[in-house]
Amino acid sequence: MLERYVGMYEAIASNEHGTARQRVRLEIAEYPHFIRRPEETYVMMRRSCKLEARIWGVPYPEIKWYKDWQPLTESSRHKIQWIEPDHCILTIGDCIGRDQGLYSVTARNIAGTISHSVTVHVEDNESEYSYNTYTRGRQVKSRTKLITDAYDLGDELGRGVTGIVYHAVERSSGRNYAAKVMHGKDAQYRTLFKNELDIMNQLCHKNLVRLHDSYETKDSFNLVSELAGGGELLHSLTKQSFYTEHDIAFYIRQLLWGLDYMHKLSIAHLGITPGDLLIKHPGSRHLLLTDFGLSRRIISFGKLNPLEYGMPEFVSPEIANGKGVGFAADMWSTGVLTYLLLTGVSLFRGSDDVETLNRVKDGHFMFRSEHWNDLTEEARDFISKLIVVDPDVRMDVKQALRHPWLNMADKKPSDDTPKLNTDALRNYYNLYKDWYSHAAVKYHYRRRPLDSCYTHPSRMIIPLVTGSLRSPRREAAHLRLSTGYNNQDTSETAHLDWQAPVIRERRRFTDVMDEEIDDERRNRINKYGADYGVAEKIDDERRNRINKYGAADTYTLRRLRHELGTRPEAHVEADALIESRRDGHAPFFREKPITIPVVIGDRLEMKCLAVGEPKPVIQWFKNELVITESSRMKFREDKDGRCIMTIEPVLNADLGIFKIVARNKKGQTVTRCRVVEATTPMAPDSPEAVDISDTEILLRWKQPSYDGHAPVICYSLQYKEADDIEWITLANNIDQSFGM
Ligand SMILES: Nc1ncnc2c1ncn2[C@@H]1O[C@H](COP(=O)(O)OP(=O)(O)OP(=O)(O)O)[C@@H](O)[C@H]1O
């Protein structure tokens, strides 16, 4: 059916007695879609509530309402209305407990069916009700008992630099929540926790995670908040194979609604990262902003204070440059996030935190044309008015909400709306998780000032510290098993020095507990085994420092702490001071090879960059034997100090695990890499037609299940007619889809 066939048709039947005519109008059907979906609703007992939806489709769809999957019909308390042109309303009057449940609306026409479900909560408690309907509720006060007295803690939902978030079920009500568990004994942690509690207590908005309860003991703080059951936005976006600019505008508008509410209360979020954008329910598009750990009240008169913390990629230039910080910092982060969501590219990300921060400080960036050209004019304008170095010139939240790009959020994408492939965003998400796997808490609070990356040879704010490497040890074991390679080097330092990147998976609660028990044990050994007697729980990094520097330095550290006070940044200053007094640094791999595919007979080049003071000496090992120079194997160093080993020609015997050791008088570090044979990839699946019009067709295919140990660079597309033998090449050097 083509557009040109739309119109009136007439059928004529004639016989010798006369003629009969029947007219019919032919139209192209349009799949039903929601212009506005009904929203989760809280209603007070004995009052009435409305669920409203706006639905469109051609022919106009038949609308049905259901309660807990049972069809609803009109009754004295249930009224179903339809108001032209597209407004569908279900009114429940005089609500009683039985009305609580899952309500669904479905729309069906000849083109297809859609449905959407939401929960209606009937509250009998006035304060719960007003709290849940986004007016200011009761103030949550911290209880001084264990959270586990009132909640059952389940799966780990995520971790950040300050705490671990678990799924929690309130025993008294059976309701689900998220509990952020933070450990830290010092007074400054208490101050930071109180700040987060205080800020959350003031927030009541549908796009901000709401606080429910709070607990504290002498060394732990717990915030129980609304559960975002749909997980992180990046997770839900990257599960799809594509999305459109309309989707991103829809999410960004919700983020701006949340920020607008905060800014009106004179509160700036100041720590927005992709991990703080959560989805309320699995499968829904309701965005929630969380993590108010860095939020602060901004006083509009007087001098703005600097902020020393954040995730480098998303902090604004005024934060990176140590200048006064206000609401505009949130707008910068929103701009960087919008660009990331639309292109999969994090604009300021460098190879390490130092490079990232330098780029942000500089504030200049290039919009890469290959991404930029794919975006609409409005999207480009929106981003370029947010990523502006001068905070006074940057668009504020009100202006951003009025920007024409956000009108897209309400529009349905048309057939020619470009589909944004999620591959780049998926790759970024893995890098993001990788950064967090280093930075996230193991047990204790770990926030570090941005500047600390300049004082550590790893050039990272939270370096991967020796001694905290439980997961990599698992990886090493996995590598040993999967390659059949039996590592002879079983000493503690050998596996503690393993520094391959780790991507932390969501783990079950019990796994986490096991690891913490491990930590506790190591703490005890340090506490009683060493003669300096540390009388408190110590986190991974401190333990590492104690092991590394010895007792004298622990005393120095304590004294310095005493002198400098107990602000969190004072700890880092103290660390930096101690570092500068020590003459030298143990080696640290700033660049290292991981897995290298190679063709037998070709040339192989392996590079690593180890830093340390004095400059470390590098040794390469294969099967625990030191590799020496030969006619096939050569070593050299480039101008930046990278150590490069070349093998030419590569033989079968060269495949396997290589070990690289960097040593200086302060210590040693080890990394391993794997050389695998690069072979031809398997064929991809047959192309699938994902979009077909009368003149165009879009073919898409999956990656081959085996890539021959090297990423597939491009594809060719060939076709032949059914009886032909010859394949004809349509296109070479193409991506995973092709439009003809
Ligand atoms: N209410 C919630 N529901 C579901 N998951 C959540 C919730 N709150 C947090 N999470 C998950 O836990 C992770 C860490 O939470 P959060 O950002 O609050 O911790 P943090 O230690 O303050 O982190 P940051 O490093 O960003 O300061 C989030 O990225 C998210 O994946």
How would you characterize the overall build of this protein?
The chain has 17 helices and 37 strands. It is an alpha+beta fold. It is globular. It is 26% helix and 29% strand. The strands form 11 sheets. It has a 5-stranded mixed beta sheet. Adenosine-5'-triphosphate binds next to strand 12, strand 14 and strand 16.
Key features of this structure:
alpha+beta, globular, five-stranded antiparallel beta sheet, 740 residues, binds adenosine-5'-triphosphate
Brief write-up:
This protein is an alpha+beta fold and 740 residues long.
Sketch the major β-sheet.
5 strands, mixed
- Count of helix runs: 17
Major sheet: order of its strands? Answer: 4-11-10-6-7
Quick one: overall form? globular
Average pLDDT across residues?
Answer: 79
Radius of gyration: 30 Å
Which structural class is indicated by helix and strand composition?
alpha+beta
- DSSP, total strands: 37
Q: Which percent bin holds the helix content?
A: 25-40%
> What is the terminal-to-terminal distance?
20 Å
Low-pLDDT runs of 5+ residues are 465-538, 545-573
Strand content: 25-35%
* Distinct small molecules bound, one entry per kind: adenosine-5'-triphosphate
Helix/strand layout:
Layout: E1 7-15, E2 18-26, E3 30-36, E4 41-44, E5 49-58, E6 62-67, E7 70-71, E8 78-83, E9 87-92, E10 101-109, E11 112-123, H1 126-132, E12 151-159, E13 164-170, E14 176-183, H2 187-202, E15 211-216, E16 220-226, E17 231-232, H3 233-238, E18 242-243, H4 245-264, E19 267-268, E20 277-279, E21 287-289, E22 296-297, H5 317-320, H6 328-343, H7 353-362, H8 369-372, H9 377-386, H10 397-402, E23 420-421, H11 423-439, H12 470-483, H13 492-496, H14 509-529, H15 540-549, H16 551-564, H17 568-581, E24 585-591, E25 595-598, E26 604-613, E27 617-622, E28 625-626, E29 633-637, E30 643-647, E31 656-664, E32 667-677, E33 688-692, E34 697-700, E35 715-719, E36 728-734, E37 737-739
Parallel strand pairs: 4-11, 25-32
Antiparallel strand pairs: 1-2, 3-5, 5-9, 6-7, 6-10, 8-9, 10-11, 12-13, 13-14, 14-16, 15-16, 17-20, 18-23, 19-22, 20-21, 24-26, 26-30, 27-28, 27-31, 29-30, 31-32, 33-34, 34-37, 35-36
Helix pairs in contact: 4-6, 6-9, 15-16, 16-17
